[in-house]
Specification:
- Seven copies of one chain form a homoheptamer.
- Chain A is α+β, with helices and mostly antiparallel strands and 280 residues long.
- The first copy, chain A, has three domains: 85 residues; 64 residues, Roll (SH3 type barrels), CATH 2.30.30; 88 residues, 2-Layer Sandwich (Alpha-Beta Plaits), CATH 3.30.70.
- In chain A, helix 4 packs across helix 5.
- In chain A, the strands form two sheets. In chain A, strands 4-3-2-1-5 form a five-stranded antiparallel sheet.
- In chain A, strand 1 and strand 2 form a beta hairpin.
- The longest helix of chain A is centred in the N-terminal third of the chain and has 40 residues.
- Chain A is elongated and about 110 Å long.
- Strand 5 of chain C pairs antiparallel with strand 4 of chain D, so a sheet runs across the interface.
Chain lengths: 280, 280, 280, 280, 280, 280, 280
């Protein structure tokens, strides 16, 4: 038995040494890499004090280091065990099951990064754009990282959305924007006159020095878009500089209100026709 | 032990050399291929300045290169390790788990490309068509790539939808379009007269020089499609040139309104029958 | 070392030659097969000009060819590498991960084809039928392929639905169709008289030369189907030739309206009982 | 080299012959089996003309045959390649990926058949029953196969539902059915009198020769089931022969209406109490 | 070659014989087991005539037998092929893919049985209980098997729900039940008096000989649970014998109505305050 | 051949014996363990009679025993077959497929237990707490096991929810609870006065001997939380002992009602402004 | 046979000893590690008495220990069995299936931890922030662990949400917050005057000593944001210190109410135009 040990030592000692050295090297390399990544990932703008930031970094570094260290040395031990001729099948099956659970759990993180990659190269939106995600959450983009998109809405609320959850992204401020206004007017209104009033208001806005640099095409009457329950719905469209569509539409509403009042065009309240009979 | 090393060198040196050369070749080839793909994928129309574009390309190229380089050399090292007789089972199991997570995370990207492929060969829509996706988002197609469809709607908003999210696509401007208008008229209306009025309005529109090239079949009264709560609903249908259905329907509404007013056909407000009794 | 190369050449050269020849043969065969499939799949009716069609075919052929070519030669290289005794485990694991991602991404395409197969052999619908899919999208079937169903609705909109998305398909024009009409009449109405009126209208329609070939069973009063808020709801049923149910029901509504007016049967507006008291 | 070929031929020729013969046998057997299955699966009742049916069968047979033939001979070639000592690992990995995609795509078909199996042995419904599926689609069962359930509703529409999509099935005509009628009566109504009226109507219906064979238990007043907004809701229950519940309930509504009118029981319209004050 | 066959026969003939005998034994055993299982599973109460039942059993037995027989003999052939030295890898890969598809398709059936097991040992409900499943389908439990739960509702409709679809089960008749009644009373009502009336009605019901064995705790006024739009909502609670809660609540409503009428407590109709002004 | 059998017997007989003994041991051990587990799992409180309980236990024990016994002896037979040199690959593949289906079907059971584990160690709720699950089902916790949570609601209904279905759990009685009451008051109300009244009512309740031990912070006027359609909505908040929030809020409503009546604060009915015009 | 046992003992005894020692070591190490983890995970703040806490810890420790112990010794036995030359394939396949089920069941737990990791390093929210999760549950953050987020809402209810269920997190108190108030005013209102009033109220609030430290930008009139059914909707925006937005908005509502009353600006009730006609 003794000779076989010696024999074994001769043929396997170098390889075991190589494994140990490789593991040690990888260990150190991983430590440094992780530190770098954490330093880059944690953005100081997210912390109130430098101490907060340092504490967070330290905790994270030590957590991740422990995990990586465990993985590297478990692999090294398994490799050495095979050198000694152990059948590590059962051990690997056990590890595999843990690994599959981890892999499945991590897949949405991977999907976040891949989706984030396409958001960036396809240029869906940039910091400062006003966007809406999945027809649900909207706001100004505060930050786009590979993993998530951060929005801040009109209420000042900050939304964190993982990129893989983004099915449809809607950018409201890409190059230009449109005025698209539906207004209900009384069924008695003279359409020709209405069209003239709306177009005049649109024109006057475009020639107004305060608004002309925000409007690319003057808002104008497009068509009767619906016969509503209590009003005829007309559609008014125009083209504006990006980010200015809400201000232009707001001003347009104000000017239309004044013009309508002057010309007797009514924005009607809900209508009911009552047929009164005595109780049966 | 020394002899075994020499022996080993003899039989394995060529193969190790082949592995190293193959890896180096693949490395260079991948670098060039990636540069090309990125240059093609990033479309200058998406960037404001040339500097923006260059910066983006540079960042992306270096990111992807690092990833590819890591993959190639890790594979090369594993191949060489097997030449030296190491059991790389545990290492591969670890890599496999990472790989599965990546593979699962990437599957929606793959689905995007496959779906995009069918959108293109089955010719679902082209740039310029007005479409609606999943009965939810609609707009004019701005761009169809293998990975996503980009729409711009009437508000000027730009929607990015990954192709794999597209379940039902609805093309509103394929070859031709229809007028399909439901209008509520008072229950007291004479149906025969109404039918005559509607058909006359439809005919007059088709013979109008301004509209005749947009109308393929004059809008006409089809049937009473419902007995509504406060009105009888009639359906009017016609056929138009693609993209012109909204303008034609808008004009038709205007002309019908005028004809109805002239002939005493009422579009009724909501009706209520009131039976008043004194408080019990 | 030199001898071993010669030795190797002797034993392996034939097999390597076989691999190369097999790959070349498969390559050529695939090229031809792909061309055929693309020529069959791309339907000229989908393109405006012949040039458009040719361009599309060319692009597609070259894309698919590149993919197939890559797959065939990578497999050939792997086979040759095993002949040279390389352990290609790591390479195959890498390829496997890519393959799994592709396979997962492709599974919905496979499901499309399998579902399409059953739609065809179980004869769910044919071109020209009016169908509704998943209680959501409806229209006339324009095309049924193994991968998708294409509908055109009354607005002239073209819907593309992948077959695997079809959970419930509803064929409205299979062999025959029914009139199934719910009408609200005043609570004061005499039910016996109403039943007589409805049945007379139904009978008269079936004996009318214009309608008799569209009606299989005359519409008749079935029962009081509900006590509604403001009206008693009655159900009228009949049987018609497929595709004619809407026209028959529309005409039936018109005739019932006239008969009701003549006989004093009221289709009541929404009713309210008001109990007025002075402000507390 | 030549000798080795001879040597090879000796040891392997029988096995290769066995493989080829086995494949040929399986090929022919599959051809016949498929023809049989297709002949049984395609039901002539689904086709208008015999020519249609034949054409469909021919197309299907040739499609499936091509697929089966490809699978059998690819497997045979792989088996022969292993006889010649090729490492077919890479080829099988490629095939495996295609196979997995196919397998995943096919799993809903498999689920259809398994679910269909349980629908049949647990006797959920039979042809002619009126059922509702997933609280969504209802109709008379026209066909139950292992793969799908086909319903026809009152509008004459034919619904195809794959069995695996059936979560809850509701059979409305299993052995017997119930009358379950909620009617709103005025708050002023005398409950004792109402109970008497309802029970009398129920009794009289059961003793009516036209209805007695359809009613198992006479409909009777059960309880005040709710204090509604404008009416007290009472519940009336009874037991009928399966399929007759709608007719019985319809007749019951008619008789109750007459009895209520005679006895001054009111089915009230929506009530509002109005407190009028002069504008502030 | 001839000798090798003899040699082969010597070493392998016993094993092949064992395989064949094992398969035959398993075959017979499975046949008997299946017959037993089918006889137990198909419950005669589900069939109208004995002939129906026999036919169903026969069809099922032969279907399942064919499937089992195919599986056993394919496995036997594969085992024998390995005895003859064939590499059955490709064949098994093919079988594996079919198997995976079957396994995936069958997983919901397995989940049914496991869930059914827990429903039984955790005693969620028993035949005769009134339950509601997933807040959606409710009725009296007619049958609980390992695979499904069968309910019959007040309309006489029979619901089949696979156990794995049951997320939340709600048993309304476990040991005891509660009266939990919300009634709206006029804002003008004197709360103290109301409380006294409600409690008196509750007490009188518990001391009523007809009801005392159904009531465990007399219904009593709990609190004002909401300020509604037109009424103050009060909550009344009590405890009853299981299955009797609906009858008790119905009777309680009747008695409260009488007591309220006698004491001038009003259950108000919807209220509106009207501020009338002349048209602007 | 005879010698080889003897030879075989020598080398393998011990191992086969070990396998058989191991299987027998495991068999007995499992029998005992299962009995114990079933005795612990089935809680006598769930059964009406002891006989019911015994019957259930007996059925379950025999079912599970049969399953376990089958698994153990099939594994033993496979182990012995490998000792005899059979290639059990095909058999194991078959078993694997069944196993995967079982494993997939069982995963929700596993998820139940893991989730239950976290519910217990993170102390989400305990028996007696009033909780709401997934914003859907609420009630008093009757039982929390590793597999499910059992609630009983105010109607006396018992809800069984598997732990893995619990996404959000809401504990309404953790340490303390809040009064959080929104009341609509007339727009004419004097806010300062209202604030004083509300705070006085809150104070008086806290100093009331009946209520002081239930209230931790007196309810007080917080702010105008909304301008409603017909009323100004004010928010009143306070802090109470857990489980007492509903009683306190109910009493608070009663006292506020009295105080409002005394001070002329109106809880307004829905308001409408009517502009009457003569029919057009 | 005896010699072979001795022979076996020589070569394998060391390895078996190593396995046993390794298992024993791991066993002890795991026991200690688990105790530590449980002591850290269970937070005493969650328990009412120290005895409760100890009991829970003890139960958990023993449960987890039993599980870990079973896993370690089963692995050890399998390793030793391979030393004795048993083919443990079948046993491992069995274990693998159990393992896969466990792994799948555990994946949502893993996803919890990974998501929790990103919530912490990306600093989505901290204890004390007011957040909303998935646009569904909102409250003050009480605890953020790697596995779950615990919120307490205004009703005092405690919500437990596993981190992996968090799709969109909305932080309402990140750095600052906004006033974002939509108010409906009568259509007759003079917009210029209204704008002046709103801005004056906003200014006066910012200069009020009680409120100036809570307001970063005075609330001001932004635009007419909609033409509502009964009112013109105006938008008022401002910027406040985080956590103070609700108080500031409440106070702003109060001040606006007073200013509106003083200046005759009306917040209108729902409007209706009534056209009365005599019954037809």
């Amino acid at each position: 038995m003794f000779e076989s040990v010696i024999e074994f030592a001769k043929t396997h000692s170098i390889r075991i040494a190589v494994i140990l050295i490789g593991a040690a090297f990888l260990h150190n390399f991983a430590m440094i890499a992780i530190k770098k990544v954490i330093n880059r990932t944690i953005r100081s703008e997210n912390f109130k004090t430098e101490r907060d930031e340092k504490l967070r970094k330290k905790t994270l570094t030590s957590t991740v280091n422990t995990a990586i260290r465990a993985v590297i040395w478990v692999l090294a031990i398994l490799l050495i065990m095979t050198e000694f001729g152990f059948n590590i099948g059962p051990l690997m099956a056990g590890a595999g099951i843990v690994g599959v659970a981890l892999g499945f759990g991590a897949q949405s993180i991977v999907a976040d990064f891949l989706k984030g990659f396409f958001i960036l190269i396809e240029n869906h939106y940039r910091v400062g754009d006003v966007i809406k995600i999945n027809n649900d959450v909207s706001g100004t983009v505060e930050r786009v990282t590979l993993r998530e998109t951060v929005l801040r809405d009109l209420d000042g609320r900050v939304h964190h959305i993982p990129n893989s959850e983004i099915k449809t992204s809607t950018n409201m401020t890409m190059e230009f924007a449109n005025v698209n206004l539906d207004i209900g007017v009384a069924y008695e209104t003279d359409i020709e006159m209405l069209e003239k009033i709306v177009n005049e208001v649109g024109q006057s806005m475009q020639t107004d020095s305060e608004w002309e640099d925000k409007i690319l095409e003057a808002p104008k009457f497009l068509r009767i878009s619906d016969f509503g329950e209590s009003a005829m719905i007309i559609k008014i469209v125009g083209k504006t500089v990006a980010m200015k569509q809400w201000a232009v539409t707001g001003e347009l509403r104000k000017r239309l209100k004044i013009a309508f009042d002057k010309n007797g065009v009514e924005i009607p309240y809900p209508q009911r026709v009552i047929r009164q009979i005595s109780k049966k």
